């Protein structure tokens, strides 16, 4: 099993969720996050004063998958989240050793 974490632009969330759902991936966790990469933030004007916004709003989508679904999920996220502009995000894949569903006690792939 693997954990796939995708940090994407917030307006792409619904497209990514729907595309993953079409792959049969139903459970995911979404967190509103802030960060920056190469774009290094930007400046904004507020009440006549200019200030720097260092951290840009992003959304982190986390999903635990069986190994055989990981590559298709990554391809799907890339295809739906890409705008071609700086700040499209990143995908991180890490191994998952164990999963337990609290309600039933099911473990590993039965729990996801």
Automatic annotation (TrEMBL):
Coiled-coil boundaries: none
Pfam families noted in UniProt: P-II (PF00543)
Keyword terms, alphabetized: Nucleotide-binding, Phosphoprotein, Transcription, Transcription regulation
Domain of life: Bacteria
Subunit structure: Homotrimer.
Family: Belongs to the P(II) protein family.
The name this protein goes by in its record: P-II family nitrogen regulator
Biological classification of the source: Bacteria, Pseudomonadati, Pseudomonadota, Betaproteobacteria, Neisseriales
């Amino acid at each position: 099993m693997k954990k796939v974490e995708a940090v994407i632009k917030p307006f792409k969330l619904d497209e990514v969720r729907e595309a993953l759902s079409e792959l049969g991936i139903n459970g995911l966790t979404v967190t509103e996050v802030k960060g920056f990469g190469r774009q290094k933030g930007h400046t904004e004007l507020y009440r006549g004063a200019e200030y720097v916004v260092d951290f840009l709003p992003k959304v982190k989508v986390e999903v635990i998958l069986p190994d055989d679904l990981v590559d298709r999920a990554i391809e799907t996220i890339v295809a739906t989240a890409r705008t071609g502009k700086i700040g499209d995000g990143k995908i991180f894949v890490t191994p998952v050793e164990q999963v337990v569903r609290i309600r039933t006690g099911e473990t590993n792939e039965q729990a996801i």
